[in-house]
Amino acid sequence: MDAVMSTASVADLLGSLRDEHLFPADGQPRTLLWAVLSVAMLVSAVVQQLSSTGKKTAAAAGKTPKEKKELYFTEDKRQWLFSLQDSEKAKPKMVYDKRDFYDYVIMLALSIGSCVAVYGVQHVLTKIVFHSSWFLLFVFATRHGTCGLLDWLKQRPAIFSPRVWLHWAMYKTENMRPSYCYQIAVFAGDIVLLRVLRTYVFTKSYPSEGDDDEMFSSLFSTPWSYYAFYGLTFGLFYLSFAVATVLRTVSLLDHLYQHNHVFKFLQQTGWRKTLRFLPEKLNLPDVCDHFVGLLHAFVTGVWTHVVTVIPYYLVLCAYWTALCSPAAPTGSSTGNEASGTSSTSSDQLLPHPGLVLTAVLSWLLRFLIIEQRLLQMFEQNDLNDWYIRDHWLGHFSKIGFSYMHGPHHDCLPVGFIAVADNGPLEGMVRHFFGHFDSFCCPPFACFRWTKTIIRDIVGHQYVPGVLPWSFSVVDYGVHHVEHHYLSMYPLGNGIEHDPDPRNNLEVENWLSNGAYGKSSTVWTWFVSEVQRIESGKKNGAGENKTADTAGAEAAGEDSGLKNKTQ
Predict the structure, then answer these.
(1) What is the pTM of this model?
(2) Are 329 and 343 in contact (CB under 8 A)?
(3) Which residue pairs from 183-186 have beta carbons closer than 8 angstroms and sit at least 24 positions apart in sequence?
(4) CB 311 within 8 A of CB 433
(5) CB neighbours of 320 closer than 8 A, spacing ≥ 6?
(6) What is the pLDDT of residues 378-419, one digit of tens each?
């Protein structure tokens, strides 16, 4: 391999990586902070498991569905899931209107600022978000309209209320689960291990020409270790993004090809009142409106993806800093003098191959011994419960919809809008303070993120007959479709066939005081349409309701459910 490439250019790449990724090389003090974080999260996890809620979760293991309901379905639990601080009042919100214009502008600005702070100004992902924001703002204005600045200020917008933001932080902290805290403790501990080894064991950045072990120098040279580690971290990150984007693009093309079918179908749902994207007074052909609506959904999906994976990206930056940052300031003694090499910043920025192998071994052990169990514990006992609480806040709190969850419902209910059931800023916050896929070992994190996003894209395809099709939604009993037809319930994942009452539709029936059931009008109609369109099956006489009847009943159900929620 070219010697010039293996030293200068690789070092320059890593140097820019360190400078841009928010993790300055500050040696032992930063290592101590990571250690404190690891211990604090470990203590937090233990305390949560010893609490009354944690004991109930542990007691539910091995119980029958009926016994789980008795443990879980309590009035205290319901009140906590639907609680806000005294100064806030629950106000259900499902769609944007013109009064949200400036909130939407601020939300776009915060999304751009987050990308600039993490990815950097010149990064392609930042540019995607920046240019997407102009298009999204244009669509919002033409679709919902705008309001006067003074009228908006009279509403006392949440952005200017520190107390509301403090409450939001409290909600997120209170909703953290033991498995999340354990995962953060493991991740931070791994960073501490690598930084300590980098400081005291693997003090040389890469094998020098004077090394006695020629095999070590040739097989484990810096370019080899650099590209291997890059491939397992940022390489997989970009691969995951590319796979999801290709799927979104293919789906978009099929939706554009069948645009008349898409909009005709959605006219039969709760979307019929908000299905226009361009002003009617322009007298443009329907194809123009359809194109803007579908492009808006696609752009929202990509934009949400870029912002949501910020925690994942920062975790990768933390690993690169642990391996590549100097243990001492440039120009000071690092132990390289004995080998006859100078203490340059370029030398110190190259990952030691031994440290790379140590990191990979650590990840393998984490995956085999810890992370699969933590994920299983979270998904079985906490995922739906955590999501219901977070999702309810997204529809009922002051900032939850306008700044967090709103973009997810502002676009057409088609698969390529989806990332992980969230808006952009909401996804970033969720995956910093709640869901822990980003903090798994990088290869496993890539697998989890890719699986989650692809599954969410398929699971949000609520127009049958178009890629990626809707039959899997029916097969798995994903009642979340009703929520995207602008009905408040189900608030959770709404998986009908899950045997655990905490995760299936029984919890939705309990939360709605019996108003929501698995045989709702909207769900029954959707199933019949999927069968008719995708399987060619004809509905029996009397089974298929008319569009107007289904829409009216759905609206009636939604209104009743909102009242019961409050």
Answers:
(1) 0.85
(2) no
(3) 183/371, 183/374, 183/436, 183/439, 183/440, 184/37, 184/38, 184/41, 184/436, 184/439, 185/37, 185/38, 185/39, 185/41, 185/42, 185/45, 186/38, 186/366, 186/370, 186/371, 186/374, 186/439
(4) no
(5) 14, 17, 18, 21, 23, 229, 233, 351
(6) 998 899 999 999 999 999 988 899 999 999 999 999 999 999
